[in-house]
Amino acid sequence: MGRNTLPESFYYAIVGVVSVFKSERNMKLHFFAALVVIILAGLVNVTPFEWAVLVLTIFLVLAAETINTAIEKTVDLVTDNYHPLAEKAKNMAAGAVLLSAANAVIIAGLIFWPYVKVIFSG
């Protein structure tokens, strides 16, 4: 692998994101959840700061899932046999996704709860 031009680097990065989306069920679920959050945020008219926090949170989850997939694929490339370190690497990467997703749920709750309260209080 030689040096890539800047446009080539962007191309390969986009190919990577598309590849994760096409091949990984969980990435599709994260995209769906992000779409739901974006629609809800538009419906309740969140503030610009809330938008920024939501977008940052969404991209954190998507990046974590992408890194998790890259680690899983690399481990699979290196060994076909069970190894406790391979299992740990995969579990830790999945744990990073779980932590980022838990963060996303907490952030969504903090941002949307005041809007939900207003809607249901009349």
If you had to describe this structure to a student in words, what would you say it looks like?
By secondary structure, the protein is mostly helical. The chain has a single domain (6-121), classed as Orthogonal Bundle (Helix Hairpins), CATH 1.10.287.3610. 88% of the residues lie in helices and 0% in strands. The chain contains 4 helices and no strands. The model has no long low-confidence stretch (mean pLDDT 96).
Average pLDDT across residues?
A: 96
Order of H and E elements: HHHH
Low-confidence stretches: none
Major sheet: none
- Rg from C-alpha positions? 18 Å
The structural domain count equals 1
**CATH level-1 class:** Mainly Alpha
Distance between the amino and carboxyl termini: 62 Å
In the CATH hierarchy, what is the architecture at level 2?
Answer: Orthogonal Bundle
Helix content: over 70%
Structural class: mainly alpha
Number of helices: 4
**What is the name of the CATH topology?**
Helix Hairpins
Fraction in beta strands: under 5%
Quick synopsis:
With 122 residues, the protein is mainly α.
Keywords:
122 residues, Helix Hairpins, mainly alpha, 4 helices
Topology diagram in text:
Blueprint: H1 6-23, H2 25-44, H3 48-78, H4 84-121
Helix pairs in contact: 1-2, 2-3, 3-4
